Amino acid sequence: MSAAQMFPAIKVTTHVLQEMKLKEEKIAMLTCYDYSMARIVDNAGIDVILVGDSASNVMAGYTTTLPITLDMMIYHASSVMRAVKRALVVVDLPFGTYQGNSKEALNSAIRIMKESGANSIKMEGGIEVTESIDRILTAGIPVMGHLGLTPQSIHKFGTYVVRATEEDEAQKLIKDAHALEEAGCFAIVLEKIPARLAEIVTSEIKIPTIGIGAGSYVDGQVLVFHDMLGITQDFSPRFLRRYHNLKEEIKGSVQAYIRDVKSSDFPNEKEQY
Ligand code: KIV
Question: Measuring CA to CA, which residue among 111, 104, 11, 54 is closest to residue 228?
Answer without folding.
Answer: 54
